[in-house]
Amino acid sequence: METEDAERGAKPQRRHSKAGLRLRNYFLTGIVVAAPIGITFYLTWAFVAWVDGWVKPLIPHAYNPDNYLPFSVPGFGLIVAIFLLTMLGFLTANLVGRTIVAYGELLLDRMPLVRNLYRALKQIFETALSQSSRSFQQVGLIEYPRRGLWALVFIATDTKGEIAERLQESDTDTMAVFLPTTPNPTSGFLLIVPRQDVILLDMTVEEGAKLVISAGLVAPEYHRKTKALAREAKEAADDEREAAE
Fold this sequence. Notes:
By secondary structure, the chain is an alpha+beta fold. Helix content is 58%, strand content 13%. It has a five-stranded antiparallel β-sheet with strand order 4-3-2-1-5, with helices on one face.
């Protein structure tokens, strides 16, 4: 009798535990679905509101729809900012615009502290936004901080300038790589490493960034045969292009 009562009590307990486990799984699934959408929407809305807060006060009263509409128009400042930046790029692309920019840079060069900040920011933006730049187009692995430990790096460029000239004396072919930190890949370390010490990966920079941000939890899918075929096709296309040139 006592054994039968114990079995009857254990069955409802198992049912309750299974039901609780299902509810927990449903809840976690809901978080997985809702959290990326909610965070993306929030960050997008916050960015639009931030740009509107900067640009809208600069718009003339007659051209600002918030002054004669019963509601605020979100994103209008962002549209105006995009239009003005596009027009600025168009104007500076001609001879007159380049002359004005050259005079402005000449004026900044006479300011001791401002010129250093301006040059650094200009070089960063030109490198990051240049269409011909090959920076951060590949992901690699290096042994860091010691032998036997591997770290993910973004390939920046071949070593240039004084560093390249000094290292050429030791007959070492080097490259500059960026070692990102987890979970914030925008901070990290610039490393000059021998080319033979870098293992190039097939994953994209976006996939590498996801891997760093997630601390290794979100690993990109890797289909070895598909990647090998794509690489062979790319090499064949490059060979045909070189032969045609």
